[in-house]
Amino acid sequence: MIEIKNLSFRYGKHQTVFDQLDMEMKAGYIYGLLGENGVGKTTLLRLLAGLRFPSEGSIHVNGMEPRKRQASFLQDVYYLPEVIDPVALSMNEYVKIYAPFYPAFDHGQFAHYISEFGLNPSKKLSQSSHGQQKKAMMSFALACNTKLLLLDEPTNGMDIPSKGIFRRLISQSATDEKCFIISTHQVRDLENLIDPIVILEHNQVLLNNSIEEISRKLWFGIHPQKSDKDLYREESIGGYSVVSFNDEGEETRVNIEMLFNAAIQNKELFKRLFIEKQESGPRLSFTEEMERRIGNGEPGSARPGTENARHPGEQSPRNTENGNL
Description:
Layout (H helix, E strand, L loop, with lengths): L1 E10 L3 E11 L3 E7 L5 H8 L7 E6 L9 H4 L2 E4 L10 H8 L8 H10 L13 H14 L4 E5 L7 H14 L5 E5 L3 H4 L6 E5 L2 E6 L1 H7 E6 L8 E5 L2 E7 L10 H10 L1 H9 L10 H11 L29
Helix pairs in contact: 4-5
């Protein structure tokens, strides 16, 4: 579906957003695109939509280059930005003008989506609230049935019931032929929907993996006390909510918000664990990886000799009954 090779993008001469970025995304998935402010999430969506052009490198979507903006490409890609510029048209008028550009547009689906959101299709968008505009344009976007759907902060401005409807409609609309990419800071709104997870950092990808792959390598739960072997932790009822290595092979529920914080605090480790090719050798054991972190002086690295440190091989006390975040 999407193949990005050696992608570089700059605003002007000095503001580099991407430098030699490589990434692949496949049809049949709903990708969650995460990252701190300013790392290029919106820029990446606009590059995929053909609204920005690479400074270097290439992007291919279904074998086509977005920068060429061919009709065969544009009819199968829809980009919904975070901020919508409301037009003085009703949704019925909007559909009449713009639906013909999308051969797979389904008027029955559109009517269903509008009804689910409780919208009046005869009301002008410019007279609607921000949340109503978001729901109206989301209905149009889904009804276009494009193979690639790009959504930038789609739940911003929606009330709680509408967010639930949004999740349900996205899930119903997903097929093996479609790829959805959702850029969001509202991970709790979409935690049970997005998979795989992509985490962008300045000029690099820290993670591009499925929930299953993440759960296989990382453990999420509650520890009764601090440990220098924790990759990330937060104070919680009953101890500390923790992300650590899954050396014991337990299956735990991935907490995406904590996953993101762990990735930001352990950038090089996450790249080695999830991104770098395995031909360099087998993955290091937990003890070897922690020793490497100590040697590299990475932020948050383990420090021997603390009162809560455990010896290599000693099992950690874990409680997953209420800690599978």
